[in-house]
Amino acid sequence: MNVLRAFLFSLAAFAMQATPASAQDGDSLLLNNVRILHLEGEHARLVPEMAILIADGRIVRIMPTDQVETQGATTIIEGDGRVVMPGLVDMHVHVWDRQSLGAYLAAGVTTIRNASGMPFHLRLAQEIERGDAIGPRLITTGPILNSPGPNAQINHQMIATAAEARSAVQQQHEAGYRRIKVYSNLTREAYEAVLSEADRLGMTIMGHTPEGERKAGMPYQLPFDIAFGEILDDGFVTIEHVESIVWHGLRDRHDEAAGRALARQIAEAKVPVDPTLLAFYNLLRVAETKGAYLQRPGTEMLNPLLVAQSQAEYDRWANEDVERNRAAFEFYKVMVRHLAEEGVLLVAGSDAGIFTNVPGISLIEELELLEEAGLDITSVLRAATINPAIALGRQDDVGLVVEGYQADLILLDSDPTEDIAALRSVSGVVAGGRWHDRASLDAQLAEAAKHDVERTQRNLVEALVAQGVDPATLGL
Length: 476
Prior knowledge:
Elements: H1 3-18, E1 28-38, E2 45-55, E3 58-64, E4 75-78, E5 83-86, E6 88-93, H2 101-106, E7 109-114, H3 119-130, E8 137-140, E9 144-146, E10 156-158, H4 162-175, E11 179-182, H5 188-201, E12 204-207, H6 228-231, E13 236-240, H7 242-249, H8 256-268, E14 273-274, H9 277-288, H10 304-309, H11 311-318, H12 322-341, H13 361-372, H14 377-383, H15 386-391, E15 409-412, E16 426-431, E17 434-437, H16 438-447, H17 453-466
Parallel strand pairs: 1-4, 1-5, 6-7, 7-8, 9-10, 11-12, 12-13, 13-14
Antiparallel strand pairs: 1-2, 2-3, 5-15, 15-16, 16-17
Helix pairs in contact: 4-5, 8-12, 9-12, 13-14
């Protein structure tokens, strides 16, 4: 061992405790003596005794550990044989305030896609990118576009006509949003205008599949105004929620043969799906426990304003029919398996930040449910790494441990391809090239439970005013 290599190794053990919680801009970071988990290719591969050099937020070089003497990293982390894999991507979250960001990083989530935009999200995304705020990379849609109906919510931007739809899309584009989220009750007129205007402005579409005006008898006696099949060539980045696919695409029939045929149709259209199994599972757990599940550890990180607004929904689900909803959930898992088997690109989203879905850890719970649904572990891990990159058109830049890619990585104590529970033991995170040790992550997790309700309310009021809504009419 030459003198320089011996010096680097002597620093390594100290570095794990002594380095700052995050490396500064311009610093370089060396992850030494790690096993790299490669998820690309036909099978996952674990390559031991490797080192990763990171600079300016990117992976500069990957090399065997015995070649690190040529590197001059300013921060050295001794991996002690830990597993390094791409950071996790949660493709469906609801961020009400910046305080929740640390909960995502603490769970190994290095990118989140916020599915209900407010003006503060645009500012926050830039702060994170510059390194002025700590958190995962933040992608956001604009405010949810919906029409009046049974699924309308306080944070939806309501449109019903083509003129209203075009104006709303233009307004979102001018504000800085580049992604549109559509919702279930959109009228045909409004939805078609959204598609046209978004296409003209170069904006992408994701969300629930619009059904048109909901009329009495739908879907059991009458078909939806907008058939599910009409949506499949509309260029969705992702379709959200397997239960919505069953509701709209199968008219809520729990028919396995029809479900497989629908999965094949989605696969042929090459539309990615974000199942969010956890969203319905947590509803079911509230029903099964008569509401006790709402008080489980971790729920202290749910935003108090959200909790207050959700009380009627909590009461409803605490008294729901358990057996009926349990049977529904079992079919949703079957439907996810059909989607996977037919070749649909599946991405992982938790719907964290609404109902009782806790920021951060909910994504791990979603991945565990995907495995329960019948996906093999490698496919599950790809749903939170490679597949989101593909769906977002970023497969040449993120989602892999490859030279030149963005340095969003997690260190695990054990191999998640042997047991998905390994994702619950994150020992460190590299987010945007910045190192966060476990002590830093734990501190961020604790901060995520310290809420600023007034700031959250200001976020919501600002969003409503931007949409031309008087907050006073909603009691805000």
